[in-house]
Amino acid sequence: MTGVRIAGTGHTHFGQFPERTGRDLFAEASDGAIEDAGVERGEIEELLYGNFMGEVAEDQGHQGPLMAEVAGVNAAATRYESACASSGVAVREAVRNVRNGEVDVVLVGGAERMTNLGTAGATKALSIAADELFEIRAGMNFPGAYALMANAYFEEYGGSREDLAHIAVKNHANALENDHAQLQREITVEDVLEAPPIAEPLGLYDACPISDGASAMVLVSDEYAEANGLDAPIAITGTGQGGDRMALADREYLARTPAAADASSEAYADAGIGADDVDVAEVHDCFTIAEVLAIESIGFYEPGEGIAAARNGETTADGDRPVNLSGGLKAKGHPVGATGVSQVIEIASLLTGEHINSDAVPDAEVGLVHNAGGTVASTTVHVMEVVE
Amino acid sequence: MTGVRIAGTGHTHFGQFPERTGRDLFAEASDGAIEDAGVERGEIEELLYGNFMGEVAEDQGHQGPLMAEVAGVNAAATRYESACASSGVAVREAVRNVRNGEVDVVLVGGAERMTNLGTAGATKALSIAADELFEIRAGMNFPGAYALMANAYFEEYGGSREDLAHIAVKNHANALENDHAQLQREITVEDVLEAPPIAEPLGLYDACPISDGASAMVLVSDEYAEANGLDAPIAITGTGQGGDRMALADREYLARTPAAADASSEAYADAGIGADDVDVAEVHDCFTIAEVLAIESIGFYEPGEGIAAARNGETTADGDRPVNLSGGLKAKGHPVGATGVSQVIEIASLLTGEHINSDAVPDAEVGLVHNAGGTVASTTVHVMEVVE
Questions:
Q1: How much is the pTM?
Q2: What is the DSSP letter of B287?
Q3: What are the chain A neighbours of B131 within 8 Å (beta carbons)?
Q4: Does residue B159 register a pLDDT over 80?
Q5: Domain B129-205+237-386 belongs to what architecture?
Q6: Reduced to 3 states, what is the DSSP secondary structure of residue B333?
Q7: From the candidates A26, A108, A131, A132, which should be mutated to test the interface with B, based on the most B CB atoms within 10 A?
Q8: Residues whose CB is less than 8 angstroms from the CB of residue A86 and which lie 6 or more positions away in sequence, other chains included
Q9: Are B4-117+211-235 and B129-205+237-386 in the same CATH fold?
Q10: What is the pLDDT of residues A234-274, one digit of tens each?
């Protein structure tokens, strides 16, 4: 078994680009990653590509070979779909395939075109990540689902809209100078509380925006990196994936996310570390409450204590447990299929000291990425470490 | 590295079941596979699930965790999509994950609900497997695309509609007693030639039907099979995947399918065998011309010679090179996401002597499965062998 290194990364700005196709976005990200890695396109043995709603937003399935063509890569290509964790599962399979010697050089990425659908259209398209028969037909959508989870959390552990508002404020502050980010502006707790409600207790500023964008990276084996003198100081050292029942009504708790707990336990065991070894994390904050559930599921906090961490500022850039220094989905944006790989890219640059917010974690050597699908019915977690 | 065994299989009848949901179909197939394998559900570590058009046909994405729930499996689950090769890519990843020791027991399967869309609706839905911007908007659909490939083949190598008709007749004959098959009736060359044209030179009987159905199997490591005394005499010993440009206009040839040639070369090398070692094959005959291209791409015939093989009856049940003894997609049916795993299941039962057509290949020890996506922009090939 070999180690798995990040040889290069590419990332579009996340934002509203309704005139850009998914292929146009992925061309930019994949070009960037391949150029950054300094590998020849002919060396790339596979493309693992995450996309969620291409069938709905662009009438385009079978995006594996399409995006390989766009990237100029003549190789086997597969599209992975696990709702908002689509490129997270692509990363996981890429890590397994590289470390097991199936391949030495792979391109992993994702893209999503969403804003062409408009906000209502995109919200409807996102709903196919929930249970169509038993949730969507009954009127559920994702703001509604996460509102149920927030209310269940408040009921079980306490907490308030204002507590959650601190998460939105923090993530906007983190995104201010992140070139990838869609929402580069400061907001206040008052702004969040005064925003229009979308599903009580969540308001508009508790939700991530609808976004277009793409991300890509080249992963290589240790041996390949060494043999080719690549600058690849960051390794993905642990991978985990968990699953849960689709419909909220079928779950035992709404205030916990066992799929994410399973994924993080597996990733920690795989990397041979524990939660206390992690210096910095990017977690899946599609809604503010999702960040609370995430930081508990990855073992940063006990169940019920994540909300106090937000309230007390422990997860801010200068807190003890910085979370979402990129701005998270909340402020960086969430072009669904691009998010999982984007999170890995943010952690990689935080660990190498090249991120705009690296100053907040000057000694960071271990990072974690938590990427969740739907109402956390699927989750991948990856552990990353500085190895050079 | 361990060997990968088929411990159990499950398969619905393929046909027109517009009232059955994808989850209902997969429940039947997965139940069958798990019961046949004789493993406890708690032993299953992953579900790898192929589905192509769930977003369009059922407004349902994120089918990994949904289908895990349906199968009663509490484990990580991922949906793979590569058009008509969707469960082929799931098989490939499952094989890699088992043989590399990532997991010991996995459920692999696929399902598709299509006939609820009607023939025109399903044909439109299938078109998302081609290039939306540069093919579909110009009026292309899959009958049209394969008609172009057939005409290119005829122009380059010769051949006629009547030659292709023999393939349809053969595959219908093979399906007659296959309980899985949608079209269990004999047809004649005249029937094929007199059928309404759908895209010249192809007529209605050159095309596979629109189908609903599901398939599933349990794969285990050699060690697990031995430790648990499982009856698992068939191993998947080679895997390959190839890719090509999406749009036909971007390809050098229309009369060859290099993605399939690449996939079969890789699978043969992986298994340490050659085309001449293969006793029986299931190939992706979504149209009659597709079977010709397939049997050439897997090395059964040189380019340009596959059409004569069909004409001369070499690929019939009592020919030298029996192909699609199940009836193929043409007569068994083609519920897209179920097809790749269904093909593996057919070969497994042919090799164990339990298939209705096993008598045609009494000494068969090596089988091959060819599963193609779109206009063969993606392909997986697997080699299977009797090991006990």
A1: 0.98
A2: B
A3: 66
A4: yes
A5: 3-Layer(aba) Sandwich (3.40)
A6: coil
A7: A132
A8: A50, A51, A52, A80, A110, A336, A337, A340, A373
A9: yes
A10: 999 999 999 999 999 999 999 999 999 999 999 999 999 99
